[in-house]
């Protein structure tokens, strides 16, 4: 008989927290960890009953009773409860979408209130029409003048009709309000938008572009062009107006909010049929949608165990083990391993502020890259369940076939000026062998399977070459510690999310551990959502665990255009693009060229490949992994969520497409 291992609540909480800080993997103790998770879940749920039981009783009893109320005063059976990815909001009264410090869009704002002109079908990689009824049509052969029409029948939530005058007004204040950081980007692209009649807009661009809908519509997460109601905003100073009671063009309105910024409650409009979703897709099913931040990862998971939440954001593999064992109504993207969806269109890595001392030096950036054992970083981040990416394009299934695999041969031949070849084509195979020693089963065996799961390879772990690059630039070592050219201990602060975006949070600690072993004093500074993103935009960082490389469709124009050098601002100023503050004329010229190419032009892929080569050679940010998303749902109160068997969309709860999911979700019976 095998001995029984007993764990306390403290044991499991410390296990999760330690792993979230990049702690070493508990080797060869998988069964004990799972036992700990199950035992701790029983303790944390405050009961000793069987699976599925909680403080509320069994899941079936809770759903059947129908009279339970949420802590914000709504019937639980009518309320869809969604985890807030961006966590606590510092100013819950600020809904001005163009003001620094406003409530994060993924707290329900762009999902429910602020539709865009054009949306995206992310599973098919195509744009669709939303507030706009059609795509821009060129008015002449200059590719600078376009006309598009608005969808009729949509009103603001106060009953006022949505018209072209709202679009023109929004364009005007973006162009004239210096305090709006995104306005500087907007003015560099759009010269004017004019309302020709109630439903027709004519747009003139600053320079030729054959696909303006990609700049002003959704291609992945959302879009910054949020149309504002003229009849409200024309009476206010846009630079200071907090828009505390925002109107909606979506199917819900903001009903209540927490004064501390921990939750936002939305209620279905009585006139939902006059919203974008109502006109396009029909009636949303939940009467209320509550976006709520429950706190640390273990608290969020236990809320799901207790059926207090329906949709979770971004948890770790260990937390999923706890949840699926404790609540039988919980499910992830797949029913079996790997559970998580692997095709998130943003990859994880480390950004540099390339305008700062040391990090403006390409050799220093490459030295920090070669000083990391990527396999150990993967283990410390997500137990090795990550796909390597050496390129500035996410290794999604589609984009791997378009860019990663075709560029593998070039990566093998790529060399520094001295002839050194940094690429390791065997990284994926080495990862498989490492996981075997950890007791992981059902690993891929063929070269094709290994590549599909773990990627085409990554950079060598070569501390000797890294040291050579640093010494070449005046760095020295003293008692195992790297010293700056000025003779001071070299210290690096890595900014990281605090209790949100778990993968990036853990990645930061794993990278800090790797750099510390190399002899650099590296520390992680965790920040709440607002501070984290403000630091990035204002250049108030040296390095950070951000995700600057995203992509959903092969035409990466809009994902990569923010790297244009025209968006660089001095540190301290709020940049709308190029937050790495990296200047490269060749890269900017290639971005300009992309703007002139139709999406299906063969030159698009060729141009993107040349840009990806620049990113490799210069390494202004270190792409590391494709993002694996553990974003489970609990089907105690609501069903019909998308999954691998019903993939009407990916589980992108924090993207703007969310409001269209609500028409497909059904109350549990």
TrEMBL record:
Entry protein name: ABC transporter substrate-binding protein
Source organism, top-level taxon: Bacteria
A Pfam family hit: SBP_bac_5
Domain Solute-binding protein family residue range list: 131-543
Chain segments carrying region Disordered: 51-74
């Amino acid at each position: 008989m095998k001995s029984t291992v007993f764990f306390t609540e403290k044991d499991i909480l410390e296990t999760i927290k330690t792993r979230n800080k990049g702690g070493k993997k508990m080797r060869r103790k998988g069964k004990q960890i799972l036992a700990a998770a199950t035992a701790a879940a029983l303790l944390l749920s405050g009961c000793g009953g069987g699976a599925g039981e909680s403080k509320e009783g069994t899941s079936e009893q809770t759903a059947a009773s129908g009279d339970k109320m949420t802590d914000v005063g709504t019937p639980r059976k009518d309320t869809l409860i969604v985890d807030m990815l961006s966590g606590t909001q510092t100013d819950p009264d600020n809904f001005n979408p163009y003001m620094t410090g406003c409530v994060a869009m993924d707290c329900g704002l762009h999902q429910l209130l602020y539709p865009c002109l054009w949306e995206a079908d992310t599973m098919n990689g195509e744009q669709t029409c939303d507030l706009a009824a059609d795509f821009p049509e060129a008015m002449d052969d200059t590719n600078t003048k376009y006309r598009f029409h608005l969808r009729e029948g949509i009103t603001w939530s106060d009953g006022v009709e949505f018209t072209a005058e709202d679009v023109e007004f929004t364009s005007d204040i973006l162009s004239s309000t210096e305090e709006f950081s995104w306005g500087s980007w907007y003015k560099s692209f759009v010269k004017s938008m004019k309302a020709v009649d109630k439903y027709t807009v004519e747009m003139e661009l600053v320079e030729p572009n054959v696909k303006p809908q990609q700049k002003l519509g959704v291609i992945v997460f959302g879009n910054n062009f949020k149309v504002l109601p003229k009849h409200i905003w024309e009476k206010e100073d846009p630079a200071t107006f907090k828009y505390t009671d925002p109107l909606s063009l979506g199917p819900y309105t903001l009903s209540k909010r927490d004064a501390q910024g921990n939750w936002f409650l939305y209620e279905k409009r009585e006139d939902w049929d006059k919203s974008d979703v109502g006109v396009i897709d029909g009636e949303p099913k939940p009467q209320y949608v509550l976006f709520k931040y429950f706190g640390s990862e273990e608290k969020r998971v236990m809320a799901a165990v207790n059926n207090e939440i329906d949709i979770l954001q971004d948890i770790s593999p260990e937390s999923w083990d706890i949840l699926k064992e404790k609540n039988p109504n919980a499910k992830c993207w797949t029913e079996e391993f790997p559970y998580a969806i692997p095709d998130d269109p943003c990859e994880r890595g480390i950004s540099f502020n390339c305008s700062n001392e040391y990090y403006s030096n390409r050799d220093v950036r490459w030295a920090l890259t070669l000083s990391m054992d990527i396999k150990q970083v993967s283990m410390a981040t997500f137990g090795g369940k990550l796909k390597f990416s050496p390129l500035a394009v996410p290794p999604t299934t589609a984009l791997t076939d378009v860019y990663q695999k075709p560029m593998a041969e070039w990566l093998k031949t790529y060399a520094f000026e001295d002839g050194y070849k940094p690429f390791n084509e065997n990284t994926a195979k080495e990862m498989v062998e490492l996981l075997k020693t950890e007791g992981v089963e059902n690993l891929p065996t063929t070269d094709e399977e290994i590549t599909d799961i773990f990627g085409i390879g990554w950079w060598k772990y070569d501390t000797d070459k890294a040291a050579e690059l640093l010494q070449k630039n005046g760095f020295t070592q003293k008692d195992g510690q790297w010293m700056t050219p000025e003779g001071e201990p070299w210290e690096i602060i890595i900014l990281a999310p605090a209790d949100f975006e778990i993968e990036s949070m853990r990645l930061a600690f794993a990278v800090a551990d790797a750099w510390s072993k190399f002899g650099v004093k590296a520390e992680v500074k965790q920040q709440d959502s607002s501070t984290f993103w403000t630091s990035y935009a204002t250049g108030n960082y040296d390095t950070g665990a951000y995700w600057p490389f995203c992509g959903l469709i092969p035409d990466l124009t809009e994902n990569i255009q923010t790297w244009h050098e025209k968006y660089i601002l001095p540190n301290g100023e709020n940049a709308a693009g190029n937050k790495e503050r990296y200047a490269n004329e060749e890269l900017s010229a290639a971005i300009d060229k992309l703007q002139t190419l139709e999406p299906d032009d063969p030159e698009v892929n060729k141009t993107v490949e040349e840009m990806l080569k620049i990113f490799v050679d210069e390494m202004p940010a270190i792409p590391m992994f494709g993002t694996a998303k553990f974003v489970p749902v609990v089907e105690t109160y609501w069903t019909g969520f998308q999954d691998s068997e019903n993939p009407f969309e990916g589980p992108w709860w924090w993207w703007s497409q969310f409001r269209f999911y609500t028409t497909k979700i059904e109350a549990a019976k």
